[in-house]
Structures are given as structure tokens and as C-alpha cells.
Design a protein that fits this description.
eight-stranded mixed sheet; about 10% strand; about 700 residues; alpha/beta; 25 helices; elongated; 2 domains; 13-stranded mixed sheet; UDP N-Acetylglucosamine Acyltransferase, domain 1
């Protein structure tokens, strides 16, 4: 499997990322990518300068490094649309390193982090990186935004004296120097902020940051020549953007303290690069309404590793996927990594010709650009989403934000993750205690509950689906009328039937002739990348459930599960991640652990299978004694299921690319209006429309993007 993954990673042009470029008229498609690359390059230059300066580095290190990152990421990354470059999320990490060490240390740490990222991709950890709780992501984003705003106080207020690095001493010094602020610096900074925001709202084709810097520079050189504004040349000298400088890594200091510092920075770079890049890739697929090959999280980690190895060798600093530049890229019509390659060429060319003028940019303009970035990093909808998940997540978000500002990025995030882990363990214990109190002397479970599944994996993936509980009465009509929740990347064949309260995650494939019927027992959950092949039946008994991470489900199917042709899954039932159910097999009233392989025609009923077990073809497993005799599933079984999952992801994408036209000429229902915000855990999926029959004919609306830099 590792060899297969490596061969996939080094296939630069045959991995599906260029499929849209090659479809139709190549010349017209190429022009779209080239035009997008030009505009994104113009947007990226002032941002790259600002991010480099805020990180304690020189302006050209952001410009040249961002260009190199764009090229390497476009060649080796896992997304069709993603734009790579310096990002706001890295500012507190890199600034902290530069405050305590030198650039050589940063080069060494970034190369080590790049190796770790590449290995995470090789060993298939892409799916796990995405499990960081949303409340922590929003919290550290707020903390980063506040840190960036504080870091620019000296430029915005026009202070001539440098400010301390740490947040609390910096605030104290700001108050002490407040009487010396330059009102013209404040005016230029706020003007840059407002002009950038306004121009980007008018049209995506206007490079707002570059226009704002140009106007600010003209004012500083003319009307405000005597206003005492500091310009880039005064602080950094000549911008050597035309020179490619190679920087070797510093030798590793093998003392315990130095190794601890290095490991700390490597973990921070790895975490930011992985989380930011995978979030950006997912957002890009949603914004582009990608119905073709989806982004590959493992290849994306591989590409991120190479980005952070090569960029620092060219006098740069750690880079990752840039959310707003990616969104701009898509809105400009980009359809392949060719746009990123063009951005590399245009950015270096523009920097070469504009270097002299960039030296004249007032530092207040740089501060204004970064204030725009800080104020645009967190969306109100994201905070509302955290609030909707409960007070615990709200407090976790607040703690993370404050900890990032008061300490540093990694300390804040790692302690928040520790708190979340302890909280989930406590919650799991509470659930177990409540269940234990409810179990009678003869050990019968809580009435109607088949089993309680509260593993860390299940808790991390707990569906925040927003489905209101139905009263425990047998009102079948109410069950039938409940709407399904379908991720935008899932595909339900028009000859399949999905009835009632069913949650379908990302890239789920429900094939023709399948019946998913949550009318008697309800609700059902089908996890990401799972597939229900032709003729599969999913049903459940009334008022019988499995208890997963604090919620009751009649049928719960985890992620990356394959249910082959003609199989029956009858609840109460739990199928763990990465499991396989063979042709015409039956699973009823059972809990199947992660990574199990159930053979052709096998019957699993009334038992609990531990993780990683193999049920032979035709076997009947209906007692604990028979479970005890089962052998473990082999690596071959796991690889077979991975192949089936990959094929069905591709089939789902291919069917969706067919634009709703079924093989026999049937059409998806396109008439439903946009239903509004979607459940958080389905990546902004939408309620499925209700056709005249009970089959769910799903056609997602175009999802909204993200404007964060």
C-alpha cells in the first residue's frame, strides 16, 4: 500500500488534477488558468511582504518564497485549485522562532517538519489530521488574528521605537508610547484597510491590496512627504526580489535544551501546515463545486512536506495553503494547478519590475494590509457554529484564543487539545456510568439500546447533524417525512431509495437498487467515503439503537466502509470504520468493530465483533463462542477494502460529474431552492429535495467559500 501511495504521489500529471483542463477546448481552459494566475500574483505580492515583515523577516523572503511555494505545491500537492504561499496562521509561530533564534534554525526546523509532513502523507494520516475539533480551530484562528493585530501596533501608530515581542509587555509599552503616535500613520493604515476591503467587494478582478499599497505609496511620496512616515527602504534597505538566494540549514545542536526547542518548533510547523492546508483543500472543492476527482488529503500532506523543504532553502519560511488566495483563484475561473504554476512565473516577474517601488511603501500600509487580514480571518458563521455545539465548545474556543495570545501558538493549541481529550474522556465516563446505572441485575442494556459505542474515534467524529429527536411513538408517517441530510460530494443514484432521517457524509456512494429505509427504526448515519453497492438493504427495528458518542442511532456506518452487492444491514447495528461487508452477507442486531472483514454470504447476528476480525464466507456468527474462534483480518483484507473505497469514491465523482443525468436518461431534481446553512459535520451539505417518489434525487447547490487570508 505504501509503494502504491508513493507511485501515486510522484505521478504529477496523471492523478486527475488536470482533468478539467483537458476537458473541452484546451486553449480556452488554459487561458482561464493563466488569467487567474496573473491576478492572484498581483494580490499575493503585498500580502507576502506583510506576512514576512510580521514574521520578523525581510519583504523579499515572502515574495520569492511564496512564488517557490506556488510552484512546488502546484506540482506535488493534492488539490486542483489550492494556492500556496505565506499565511497568517504561521505568523506567531515564525515570529516566535525569529525572536529567539536565527533564520538558519528556522530552515532546519522547517526541513524536519517537511519530512514529517511527507511521512504523514505516505502512511495515510490525512484523514486523521482533519479530526481537530472545530472549536479549537476557530479559537486558534481568533488568537492568531489578535496576535497579528498586536504585532502591527507599532506600524499602525507610527511608533519609532520597537515593541517587545510578548503580548502582555507589548500592550504595556503601547500604552506608554500612545502619546507619541503619528496620526498620519493611523490614517494611512485605516485607509489601506478600508480601501482593500472595498475593492475586493467590488470585483475579484481588482487586486485590492496592490492598489491600496500603490495609492499609499503615492501619497507618502507626495502629499504626505513631510508626515514622518517610515517606508520599507528605511527599515529594510534594498528589496532584493530579483535575486534567488540559497540558504543552508543550520547544524543541529544536540544538547537536550536545543533538541527540545527544535522538536517544539517542528511540531508547531507540522500542525499549522497540515491543518491549514487540508482545511483549504476541502474549502476549495466546495467552492468550485468539484464533481470530479476530489482532493487527496494524503497527497496534500506529501506536497506540503516538499513545499516546506524547498521554500526555506530559497531563503523563505514555512508556507501552506492560503484560503483567500485559493478562493480568489477559483472565482477567477481557475480549474487546474496550471494557475498555480503561472502564479509562480508572474509573481517573480512582477516583483522584479516593481522592487524599486515596493521599497517606497510606507510601513503603515503594510500594517493596514495585515489589519485587513486579521479582521477577515474569522467569520461570524463559524463562531455561531461553535455556539450551536454547546457551552463546552464555546469555552474551549475562548480558552484557545486567549492561550494563543497570552503564551504562544503551540502551547495554546496543545493545551486546548489536552483539555478536549480530558473532556471527551469525562463525557464518555458519564455515558458509561449512566448506562451502568440503567442496566438491571441480569445485564440487559437500557431498553431499546443494542450497545454503547464511545470510542475516541467516534467522539471525534460525533455528528453535529442538527436533527431534532422524534417522539418515541410509532408515527411512521412522521418518520417517512423526515428529510435526509446529504453532503455535497455524496451521490445517490436516482434508482436508489433513501427515506427518512438519514445522514450521508462526504463522498458516500449509494448505488442503483439500494434501499436505505429509516421509516421504522431511525435515524441512520453513513460515514464519509462509505459505499452501499447495488441492491443493498439498510433497515432497522423500531425503538432499537446503538449509542454512539452520546447519541442514539438505529444504524451507524462509520467512515470508509464498503457494503457489497445484495448485502443486508439491519439495525440496531454499528459498523466501525474501514470495515467490509461481502456480497449477500447479513448483519443484524450487531456491533462490528473497526477494520472487520465479513465474507460473502456470511451472517452476523446478535453479537459484538472486536476490531480487526475476519468472518469467513458463508459463516454464521451468532454467539460469543463463535466470535472467540474468529481469526484476525489480514493486511490483504484491509487493502482490498481500501481499493473498493477508492473505486466507489471515483464512481461517485464520475456520476456527479455527469451533471445529474442517470444512465437511462433519468434526471435529478434541480428545482429545489437553496435551503440555507447546512449541518456543520457535513461540510455545508444541504437538505435533499423531496421528489414525487420516496427516492432522494440529490443535486447540491454551489457552496460558499472562505475569504480568510
Amino acid at each position: 500500500m505504501i509503494k502504491k501511495r508513493l507511485l501515486h504521489f510522484v505521478d504529477l500529471f496523471g492523478d486527475g488534477r488536470y482533468e478539467d483542463l483537458l476537458r473541452g477546448r484546451l486553449a480556452i481552459n488554459a487561458v482561464r488558468d493563466i488569467a487567474a494566475g496573473l491576478v492572484v500574483a498581483m494580490v499575493a505580492i503585498p500580502l507576502a511582504m506583510g506576512f514576512a515583515i510580521a514574521s520578523g523577516l525581510r519583504p523579499e523572503q515572502g515574495i520569492v518564497g511564496g512564488a517557490v511555494a506556488g510552484l512546488v505545491g502546484a506540482l506535488f500537492g493534492g488539490s486542483k485549485y489550492q494556492v500556496y504561499g505565506p499565511t497568517a496562521a504561521f505568523i506567531p509561530v515564525i515570529a516566535g522562532v525569529m525572536a529567539a533564534h536565527d533564520h538558519g534554525f528556522l530552515v532546519t526546523a522547517s526541513i524536519l517538519a517537511g519530512v514529517v509532513l511527507a511521512l504523514l502523507g505516505v502512511f495515510g494520516f490525512g484523514r486523521y489530521v482533519q479530526a481537530v475539533p472545530h472549536s479549537i480551530i476557530v479559537g486558534f484562528t481568533i488568537g492568531i488574528a489578535a496576535t497579528i493585530a498586536l504585532s502591527q501596533a507599532g506600524e499602525v501608530f507610527g511608533f519609532r521605537e520597537p515593541l517587545p515581542y510578548k503580548s502582555i509587555p507589548k500592550l504595556q509599552r503601547i500604552f506608554e508610547l500612545f502619546g507619541t503616535l503619528n496620526i498620519w500613520a493611523v490614517a494611512v493604515a485605516l485607509g489601506t484597510l478600508l480601501l482593500t476591503k472595498g475593492l475586493l467587494k467590488i470585483s475579484v478582478y481588482i487586486p485590492g491590496p496592490l492598489v491600496a499599497l500603490g495609492l499609499g505609496t503615492w501619497l507618502t511620496q507626495n502629499s504626505l512627504a513631510d508626515a514622518g512616515l517610515t517606508v520599507v527602504r528605511e527599515k529594510y534597505g534594498e528589496i532584493a526580489a530579483a535575486k534567488i538566494v540559497m540558504t543552508p540549514p543550520a547544524p543541529i545542536d544536540w544538547s537536550a535544551a536545543a533538541l527540545g526547542d527544535t522538536a517544539y518548533v517542528v511540531v508547531a510547523i507540522t500542525f499549522v501546515a497540515a491543518v491549514e492546508s487540508l482545511l483549504c483543500s476541502r474549502m476549495a472543492d466546495r467552492l468550485a463545486n468539484n464533481t470530479g476527482t476530489p482532493f487527496d488529503p494524503d497527497k496534500e500532506l506529501w506536497g506540503q512536506g516538499l513545499v516546506n523543504i524547498f521554500v526555506v532553502l530559497f531563503n523563505g519560511f514555512p508556507h501552506t495553503g492560503a484560503l483567500a488566495r485559493t478562493a480568489t483563484n477559483i472565482r477567477l475561473g481557475a480549474i487546474s494547478p496550471l494557475a498555480g504554476i503561472c502564479k509562480f512565473a508572474f509573481k517573480l516577474a512582477l516583483a522584479f519590475y516593481l522592487a524599486t517601488y515596493l521599497e517606497m511603501v510606507p510601513m503603515a500600509c503594510i500594517g493596514g494590509i495585515l489589519l485587513y487580514v486579521a479582521t477577515n480571518m474569522v467569520k461570524g458563521e463559524e463562531v455561531k457554529e461553535v455556539v450551536a455545539h454547546g457551552r463546552g465548545h464555546v469555552w474551549l474556543m475562548v480558552y484557545t484564543a486567549l492561550a494563543v495570545v497570552a503564551t504562544d501558538f503551540l502551547t495554546g493549541v496543545m493545551t486546548a487539545l489536552g483539555i478536549h481529550w480530558a473532556w471527551q474522556k469525562w463525557a464518555q465516563g458519564q455515558i458509561a456510568a449512566a448506562d451502568a446505572e440503567a442496566v438491571p441485575a441480569h445485564h440487559v442494556e437500557v431498553a431499546g439500546r443494542r450497545a454503547t459505542v464511545g470510542t475516541d474515534t467516534a467522539l471525534a467524529r460525533r455528528p453535529q447533524h442538527g436533527i431534532e429527536p422524534v417522539e418515541s411513538t410509532h408515527k411512521w408517517l412522521r418518520h417517512i417525512r423526515q428529510r435526509a441530510h446529504v453532503a455535497p460530494t455524496a451521490f445517490v443514484h436516482p434508482q436508489a431509495s433513501v427515506i427518512g432521517r438519514v445522514v450521508l457524509g462526504d463522498h458516500v456512494h449509494v448505488a442503483a437498487g439500494t434501499s436505505v429505509r429509516a421509516d421504522e427504526g431511525t435515524p441512520f448515519y453513513i460515514g464519509a467515503n462509505s459505499n452501499l453497492q447495488d441492491g443493498v438493504i439498510v433497515h432497522a427495528l423500531k425503538d432499537r439503537h446503538v449509542h454512539v458518542a452520546g447519541e442514539d442511532w438505529a444504524v451507524f456506518v462509520g467512515a470508509n466502509v464498503s457494503i457489497a452487492h445484495g448485502a443486508i444491514v439491519h439495525g440496531p447495528c454499528y459498523l466501525g470504520d474501514n470495515s467490509f461487508v461481502g456480497f449477500q452477507a447479513t448483519v443484524h442486531d450487531a456491533v462490528v468493530g473497526e477494520g472487520c472483514f465479513i465474507g460473502i454470504g456470511a451472517v452476523v447476528v446478535g453479537v459484538e465483533l472486536p476490531a480487526g476480525k475476519h468472518v469467513p464466507h458463508g459463516a454464521i456468527i451468532d454467539s460469543a463462542d463463535k466470535v472467540a474462534l474468529l481469526h484476525d483480518a489480514t493486511e490483504h483484507h484491509a487493502e482490498f477494502n481500501e481499493d473498493v473505497v477508492d473505486v466507489n469514491r471515483g464512481l461517485a465523482a464520475a456520476y456527479r460529474r455527469h451533471r445529474g443525468r442517470a444512465p437511462h436518461g433519468l434526471q435529478f431534481d434541480r428545482s429545489h431552492p437553496h435551503p440555507g446553512a447546512a449541518p456543520a459535520h457535513l461540510d455545508h451539505g444541504h437538505h435533499a429535495p423531496r421528489p414525487h417518489s420516496y427516492g432522494w434525487m440529490y443535486q447540491p447547490d454551489r457552496a460558499l467559500g472562505d475569504d480568510r487570508f
